[in-house]
Structures are given as C-alpha cells and as structure tokens.
Amino acid sequence: MGNDMPLKVNGQRLWDSLIAMDEMGESRPALSAEDFAARALFADWCHQAGMSLDADAIGNLYARRAGHDKDASPVVMGSHLDTRPGGSCFDGSYGVLAALEVVRSLNDADITTTRPLEIAVWINQAGERFAPAMLGSATFCGDVPLLQALTTEDGRGISVATALSGHGGDLPLGRPFAAYFEAHIEQGPVLEQAGLPIGIVTGGQAICWLDVEVNGSTAHAGTTPMALRRDALLGASAMIGQLEKLATEHQPHGLVTVGQLLITAAARNTIPGQVRFTVDLRHPLDVQITAMEQQTRQLLQQVAAQRGLDVSIRRHWFSMATPFDSGCIAAVRQAVTALAYPHQDIVSGAGHDAMNLARHCPSTMIFIPCRKNPAQHQAEYATPDDVHMGADVLLGAVLAQADS
User: Quick check: 283 and 319 in contact, CB under 8 A?
Assistant: First the structure.
C-alpha cells in the first residue's frame, strides 16, 4: 500500500458489530446481566482477533494486542458498554467497537505496531446505577479510592463489589499508558448542523452539579391565605426562572439545566413544604464556571430570603475544564487530513472517560455526528458512513502514536 493511501477499516464489519452489540439490550446498567452479556460478547470477539483479555480490581476490561516492543507502554483506545435509559447502540459502544475494528483491520493488513495496543472498557460511565459517573476510569486514575468505589451502592443498596461478583481482575490500577484515544458520538447538534463527519475534540468543558433543597411550610390548600403561605414549590419555580436569566448572561457558551425536581409528600390539596432540585452548570472556561456557581448560590439565597424560605445548596460534583493533549490532537488532525475528511475542532459538552484519562496520560477524542432518526426510535443515530469515517481517523491516529 502506498504512503498516499491511508489504511481504512472495514466499515460493514464495524456496523454489523454495533448492531449485534445492541441485541445485548438497549438499556444496560453498569454491572447488570445485560452489561455482562455485552462484555462477554466483546471478550469473544477479542479472543477471535488474537487479543488477550484481563480486568482490574474495579472491573474495567483491557484487551491487548502485542507490539514489537513488549515492554513499551500501550497506546489505548476505549469507551464503555453500559448505557443510560433511552440511549442508543452508538453511545459508548461505538468507541469500544471502533477500537476493535482498528485491531481487526491491522490484522487484515498484517501490521504489527511498535507499541502494544489495548482496548479499555470502562465500567459505569453512564452513572445511571452508581454515582458518580465515569467511576471505572476515575478509580483507575486514582481520582476515586478503590475501597470507596467498591462500597458505592445503587438505589437498591447493592454495592459495586457485590455487583462485580468475581468479574474483577489482577491488572494494576494506574499503570502507564503512552496515549489514550476515545471515539464517540457527539451527543449534540454541532457537527450535524455543520454537515461535517468528524470533530477533532480539543477538550471538555467544566461541569458543576449542585443539589438544592428549599424548605417552607406544608399547609392546607383551602385554609391558608396566599399572603401567609411559605410555598416551597413556588419559591423553587422563582429560583429556576432566575437561573434561566443567569444562563443568558453567560452566552454563547454557558449552560444551565434543572434536570430533576422532587416535591416531598406531594398531594393535590397540600401546599408543598419541601422541594429538592438539581442544577447542572457548564462552561468551557474554569473562571466562568466558578462565577456561575457563585452567582447561582447568590440568586437562590436572594429568592429564598424574599419569600421567607430556607434554602440549602450542596455541591454534588465539580469537574474542571479538561484540555486534551496537543500531540494526540495533532495525530488526529494528521489522520483526518490524510483521509481528506471534512472536519472541525470542537469542545465536548458531555463528560467522558477521556477527561479522567487526560489527567493520567496524553489523551484526546474523535467525535462523529449523531442525528435524529425517528424511524429507529433513537435520539442518537449515526450513519454507517460517519461510523466508518470516525474509525478510519481513529486507526490513522493510533498507528501514528503506536509507532512513534
């Protein structure tokens, strides 16, 4: 093969793998029967591709393809196989199976890289069953202590250790990686609106999660005059309205979302005395996310004081903005340029395992568009062409890093 013809993957084989993996269950909570079935299918495919397979103590899987230099630290690709409710067969699975297709295509071409290659399957990325999200990669990187991770419980009181039930392994946490690459659907409209198949991800934005509790007085709806009420729900509604105004002050990049709201002991004829809600703040700049958090706290406290309510605000999670490695970004840029695929730089709006890995080793991501496809009842649909092109870029970038 000439130098002017970059190696490409088998797009149909990758697509078939995605569809087969989807048959393991559209909803696969971390360490559930469906998740383990998906992991078993992945393991079978890896063995067929001549890879060895092992796990670490938190249950992350690592499939390894040997390189010429067996002592060199590996170039790692990966993502997750657990899914959130209502997700698609592309969320997470695409990054894992695109990585597998890279290995299969190298096998087809009889190419052995200098460095070993590994595919990582991180547990609990979605965070729907165990909190926090991205627990597997955070534990690997040392951001969450292993004991804390293993004793984390889901809503039914089942711990990670119990759910893992012998599926852990002996590979050490925090071992060195030469680089990490993660291919993923964008989970946003930017690439689709631009009509571009590839996003070169330069980093991830900062995220701040707050838990808010508003307390007033529970009272009868028919016997309590409006002027004497301490209505926690009306107070929370006013607070949320102020948060919408806050978002407009931090445009074009600031994002504010209230995704959960719970009325304690809700009843049709009862004035709510307690309301809990969540706030999700995002911005690409750390200085701006800090300002947004401070302003959020001030606004909520002001509304509470005006209405005679009590409010408590607790930070649930904070993740600083994550710049990706310039060398890994350059490898992706070189690969996409060689392939002549249209592309643009993009900042990730969602949290991904690569953001944890970026604090451990040189890392970056490759995005492909996700489109609305009501015919398949999926909010996140990727076309076969986009799936193929993203894996081609992954292959080129990984080859460059593995032979450097």
Answer: no
Which tokens hold the place of 224?
């309590």
Q: Is 174 left (phi over 0), alpha (psi -120 to 50) or beta?
A: left
Exposure letters 269-296 (e unless 16+ CB within 10 A, then b): eebbbbbbbebbbbbbbeebbbbbbebb
Question: pLDDT per residue over 225-267, tens digit each?
Answer: 999 999 999 999 999 999 999 999 999 999 999 999 999 999 9
* C-alpha span between 235 and 275 (Å, rounded): 9
Instruction: Give pLDDT, residue 86.
Output: 65
* Residue with token string 């093969």: 1
For residue 376, name the pLDDT band (cuts at 50, 70, 90): very low
Alpha carbons 325 and 311: distance in angstroms, whole number: 41
From first CA to last CA, the distance across the chain in angstroms is 20
Task: Tell me 56's DSSP state.
Answer: B
Sign of CA dihedral 33, 34, 39, 44: positive
Query: Taking a C-beta distance cutoff of 8 angstroms, is the pair 254, 288 a contact?
Result: yes
